[in-house]
Design goal:
GO terms for molecular function: chloride channel activity; oxidoreductase activity. The chain starts with a strand and ends with a helix. It has 252 residues and is mostly helical. Helix 5 runs antiparallel to helix 6, helix 5 runs parallel beside helix 8 and helix 6 crosses helix 9. Helices cover 45% and strands 6% of the residues. The longest helix has 20 residues.
Amino acid sequence: GCFTKLASDDGESIGHCPFCQRLFMVLLLKGVPFTLTTVDVKRSLDVLKAFAPGSQLPVLLYDGEPKTDTIKIEEFLEETLRPPKYPSLVPRYKESFTAGNDVFHKFSAYIKNPLPAQDEALQSGLLKALWKLDTYLRTPLEYELTQDPRLTVSRRRFLDGDQLTLADCSLLPKLNIVVCEHYRQFGIPKDLRGIWQYLNNAQEVKEFKYTCPNNEEIVSPGAWAVHPSWHGGKAGGRGDQQGWRKLHEPAH
Protein backbone atom coordinates (compact mmCIF):
# COMPACT_ATOMS: atom_id res chain seq x y z
CA GLY A 1 0.00 0.00 0.00
CA CYS A 2 1.03 3.60 -0.57
CA PHE A 3 0.29 6.26 2.05
CA THR A 4 -0.01 9.77 0.59
CA LYS A 5 -1.25 13.19 1.63
CA LEU A 6 -4.98 13.96 1.81
CA ALA A 7 -6.40 17.13 0.26
CA SER A 8 -7.34 19.83 2.72
CA ASP A 9 -10.72 20.74 1.28
CA ASP A 10 -12.89 17.70 0.57
CA GLY A 11 -11.32 15.05 2.80
CA GLU A 12 -11.13 12.58 -0.08
CA SER A 13 -8.88 13.80 -2.90
CA ILE A 14 -5.12 13.46 -3.13
CA GLY A 15 -3.37 16.42 -1.54
CA HIS A 16 -0.53 18.62 -2.69
CA CYS A 17 2.81 16.88 -2.17
CA PRO A 18 5.20 16.50 -5.13
CA PHE A 19 6.91 13.54 -3.46
CA CYS A 20 3.61 11.69 -3.04
CA GLN A 21 2.64 12.39 -6.65
CA ARG A 22 6.09 11.27 -7.77
CA LEU A 23 5.69 7.86 -6.13
CA PHE A 24 2.07 7.56 -7.29
CA MET A 25 3.22 8.09 -10.88
CA VAL A 26 5.95 5.46 -10.54
CA LEU A 27 3.49 2.85 -9.25
CA LEU A 28 1.03 3.57 -12.07
CA LEU A 29 3.78 3.36 -14.69
CA LYS A 30 4.95 0.04 -13.26
CA GLY A 31 1.42 -1.29 -13.68
CA VAL A 32 1.47 -3.15 -10.37
CA PRO A 33 -1.70 -3.44 -8.23
CA PHE A 34 -1.53 -1.29 -5.10
CA THR A 35 -3.75 0.31 -2.49
CA LEU A 36 -3.56 4.09 -2.07
CA THR A 37 -4.29 5.38 1.44
CA THR A 38 -4.64 9.13 1.95
CA VAL A 39 -3.56 10.56 5.31
CA ASP A 40 -4.74 13.84 6.85
CA VAL A 41 -1.41 15.38 7.85
CA LYS A 42 -3.14 17.71 10.32
CA ARG A 43 -4.95 14.98 12.25
CA SER A 44 -3.98 11.44 11.39
CA LEU A 45 -0.20 11.08 11.34
CA ASP A 46 -0.75 8.68 14.26
CA VAL A 47 -1.78 6.20 11.57
CA LEU A 48 1.86 5.96 10.51
CA LYS A 49 3.41 5.75 13.97
CA ALA A 50 2.48 2.10 14.42
CA PHE A 51 4.70 0.87 11.60
CA ALA A 52 6.81 3.85 10.47
CA PRO A 53 7.58 6.07 13.48
CA GLY A 54 9.01 9.47 12.65
CA SER A 55 8.44 9.05 8.93
CA GLN A 56 7.24 11.61 6.39
CA LEU A 57 4.82 10.98 3.56
CA PRO A 58 4.85 9.19 1.23
CA VAL A 59 5.29 5.76 2.80
CA LEU A 60 5.27 2.49 0.87
CA LEU A 61 4.16 -0.66 2.68
CA TYR A 62 5.50 -3.72 0.83
CA ASP A 63 4.78 -7.16 2.31
CA GLY A 64 4.25 -5.48 5.66
CA GLU A 65 7.63 -3.71 5.51
CA PRO A 66 7.55 0.13 5.46
CA LYS A 67 9.72 2.07 3.00
CA THR A 68 9.97 5.75 3.85
CA ASP A 69 12.54 7.58 1.70
CA THR A 70 11.26 8.59 -1.74
CA ILE A 71 14.54 7.95 -3.57
CA LYS A 72 15.09 4.63 -1.79
CA ILE A 73 11.50 3.64 -2.56
CA GLU A 74 12.13 4.30 -6.26
CA GLU A 75 15.34 2.25 -6.15
CA PHE A 76 13.52 -0.58 -4.36
CA LEU A 77 10.66 -0.60 -6.88
CA GLU A 78 13.07 -0.54 -9.82
CA GLU A 79 15.06 -3.45 -8.40
CA THR A 80 11.99 -5.46 -7.36
CA LEU A 81 9.62 -4.78 -10.27
CA ARG A 82 11.98 -5.55 -13.14
CA PRO A 83 11.61 -6.49 -16.81
CA PRO A 84 10.34 -8.51 -18.47
CA LYS A 85 7.25 -8.48 -16.24
CA TYR A 86 7.45 -4.78 -15.41
CA PRO A 87 8.88 -1.88 -17.44
CA SER A 88 12.16 -0.26 -16.48
CA LEU A 89 11.69 3.44 -15.73
CA VAL A 90 15.40 4.33 -15.64
CA PRO A 91 16.34 7.03 -18.18
CA ARG A 92 18.84 6.14 -20.88
CA TYR A 93 20.70 9.42 -20.40
CA LYS A 94 21.95 10.63 -17.02
CA GLU A 95 21.43 14.22 -18.22
CA SER A 96 17.69 13.56 -18.20
CA PHE A 97 17.87 13.02 -14.45
CA THR A 98 19.63 16.33 -13.84
CA ALA A 99 17.67 18.45 -16.34
CA GLY A 100 15.51 20.90 -14.43
CA ASN A 101 17.02 20.04 -11.05
CA ASP A 102 17.67 23.67 -10.18
CA VAL A 103 14.30 25.01 -11.39
CA PHE A 104 12.49 24.22 -8.18
CA HIS A 105 15.38 25.42 -6.01
CA LYS A 106 15.34 28.79 -7.81
CA PHE A 107 11.54 28.98 -7.69
CA SER A 108 11.46 28.22 -3.97
CA ALA A 109 14.11 30.86 -3.23
CA TYR A 110 12.19 33.43 -5.27
CA ILE A 111 8.76 33.00 -3.74
CA LYS A 112 10.06 32.75 -0.16
CA ASN A 113 12.30 35.80 -0.43
CA PRO A 114 11.31 38.44 2.17
CA LEU A 115 13.52 41.17 0.68
CA PRO A 116 11.98 42.99 -2.34
CA ALA A 117 15.40 44.31 -3.36
CA GLN A 118 16.47 40.74 -4.18
CA ASP A 119 13.39 39.85 -6.22
CA GLU A 120 14.80 40.86 -9.59
CA ALA A 121 18.00 38.84 -9.18
CA LEU A 122 16.13 35.79 -7.88
CA GLN A 123 13.59 35.95 -10.71
CA SER A 124 16.45 36.21 -13.19
CA GLY A 125 18.00 33.08 -11.69
CA LEU A 126 14.69 31.24 -12.02
CA LEU A 127 14.29 32.31 -15.65
CA LYS A 128 17.81 31.10 -16.45
CA ALA A 129 17.02 27.70 -14.89
CA LEU A 130 13.81 27.46 -16.95
CA TRP A 131 15.68 28.44 -20.11
CA LYS A 132 18.27 25.74 -19.42
CA LEU A 133 15.51 23.13 -19.04
CA ASP A 134 13.81 24.38 -22.20
CA THR A 135 17.08 24.06 -24.10
CA TYR A 136 17.48 20.45 -22.98
CA LEU A 137 13.92 19.59 -24.02
CA ARG A 138 14.40 21.17 -27.45
CA THR A 139 17.84 19.66 -28.13
CA PRO A 140 17.72 16.29 -29.94
CA LEU A 141 19.11 13.37 -27.96
CA GLU A 142 21.65 10.94 -29.40
CA TYR A 143 19.03 8.34 -30.37
CA GLU A 144 17.06 11.01 -32.27
CA LEU A 145 20.12 12.10 -34.23
CA THR A 146 20.88 8.47 -35.06
CA GLN A 147 17.41 8.22 -36.61
CA ASP A 148 17.63 11.63 -38.31
CA PRO A 149 21.09 13.30 -38.40
CA ARG A 150 19.58 16.51 -39.81
CA LEU A 151 17.18 17.00 -36.90
CA THR A 152 17.66 20.40 -35.25
CA VAL A 153 14.74 20.47 -32.78
CA SER A 154 13.82 17.45 -30.68
CA ARG A 155 10.54 15.67 -31.40
CA ARG A 156 10.52 13.58 -28.23
CA ARG A 157 7.59 13.95 -25.83
CA PHE A 158 9.39 13.77 -22.49
CA LEU A 159 12.80 14.30 -20.87
CA ASP A 160 14.40 11.06 -22.06
CA GLY A 161 12.23 10.02 -24.98
CA ASP A 162 8.59 9.27 -25.78
CA GLN A 163 7.90 7.39 -22.53
CA LEU A 164 7.79 8.75 -18.98
CA THR A 165 10.75 7.79 -16.79
CA LEU A 166 11.81 8.32 -13.17
CA ALA A 167 13.23 11.69 -14.28
CA ASP A 168 9.77 12.88 -15.35
CA CYS A 169 8.16 11.53 -12.19
CA SER A 170 10.57 13.71 -10.21
CA LEU A 171 10.35 16.89 -12.30
CA LEU A 172 6.72 17.12 -13.45
CA PRO A 173 5.04 17.41 -10.01
CA LYS A 174 7.37 20.29 -9.11
CA LEU A 175 7.15 21.96 -12.51
CA ASN A 176 3.36 21.83 -12.19
CA ILE A 177 3.63 24.03 -9.09
CA VAL A 178 5.70 26.62 -10.96
CA VAL A 179 3.16 26.75 -13.78
CA CYS A 180 0.27 27.59 -11.45
CA GLU A 181 1.23 31.28 -11.64
CA HIS A 182 -0.16 31.98 -8.16
CA TYR A 183 3.01 32.73 -6.26
CA ARG A 184 4.02 36.37 -6.90
CA GLN A 185 2.11 36.17 -10.19
CA PHE A 186 5.11 34.50 -11.81
CA GLY A 187 4.40 32.56 -14.98
CA ILE A 188 6.56 30.47 -17.28
CA PRO A 189 7.24 32.61 -20.39
CA LYS A 190 5.24 31.49 -23.41
CA ASP A 191 8.30 31.53 -25.65
CA LEU A 192 9.77 28.59 -23.73
CA ARG A 193 8.02 26.28 -26.16
CA GLY A 194 9.95 23.19 -25.11
CA ILE A 195 8.60 23.39 -21.55
CA TRP A 196 5.04 24.14 -22.63
CA GLN A 197 5.04 21.26 -25.11
CA TYR A 198 6.45 19.02 -22.39
CA LEU A 199 3.65 20.01 -19.98
CA ASN A 200 1.01 19.55 -22.69
CA ASN A 201 2.37 16.09 -23.48
CA ALA A 202 2.28 15.20 -19.77
CA GLN A 203 -1.37 16.22 -19.52
CA GLU A 204 -2.18 13.63 -22.17
CA VAL A 205 -0.98 10.69 -20.08
CA LYS A 206 -3.11 9.37 -17.24
CA GLU A 207 -0.14 8.71 -14.95
CA PHE A 208 0.38 12.47 -14.65
CA LYS A 209 -3.09 13.84 -15.28
CA TYR A 210 -4.88 11.66 -12.72
CA THR A 211 -2.27 12.16 -9.99
CA CYS A 212 -2.28 15.97 -10.08
CA PRO A 213 -3.86 17.83 -7.15
CA ASN A 214 -6.23 20.60 -8.18
CA ASN A 215 -4.86 24.13 -8.43
CA GLU A 216 -6.68 25.24 -5.28
CA GLU A 217 -4.85 22.58 -3.31
CA ILE A 218 -1.47 23.64 -4.70
CA VAL A 219 -1.94 27.29 -3.67
CA SER A 220 -3.44 26.58 -0.23
CA PRO A 221 -1.61 28.16 2.74
CA GLY A 222 -0.30 24.84 4.01
CA ALA A 223 1.08 23.71 0.69
CA TRP A 224 4.64 24.61 1.61
CA ALA A 225 4.90 22.68 4.86
CA VAL A 226 4.68 19.09 3.72
CA HIS A 227 8.21 17.74 3.45
CA PRO A 228 11.13 19.11 5.51
CA SER A 229 13.79 18.37 2.90
CA TRP A 230 11.74 20.22 0.30
CA HIS A 231 12.27 23.58 2.01
CA GLY A 232 15.93 23.58 1.14
CA GLY A 233 14.92 23.35 -2.50
CA LYS A 234 17.45 20.55 -3.07
CA ALA A 235 15.06 17.61 -3.06
CA GLY A 236 15.37 15.53 -6.18
CA GLY A 237 18.86 16.84 -6.88
CA ARG A 238 22.06 15.10 -5.86
CA GLY A 239 20.16 12.15 -4.40
CA ASP A 240 18.55 11.47 -7.76
CA GLN A 241 21.94 11.34 -9.45
CA GLN A 242 23.11 8.83 -6.86
CA GLY A 243 19.95 6.85 -7.50
CA TRP A 244 20.61 6.92 -11.23
CA ARG A 245 24.11 5.57 -10.73
CA LYS A 246 22.92 2.84 -8.39
CA LEU A 247 20.18 1.74 -10.77
CA HIS A 248 22.69 1.56 -13.60
CA GLU A 249 25.27 -0.45 -11.70
CA PRO A 250 25.54 -4.00 -13.08
CA ALA A 251 24.13 -6.74 -10.88
CA HIS A 252 26.71 -8.91 -9.13
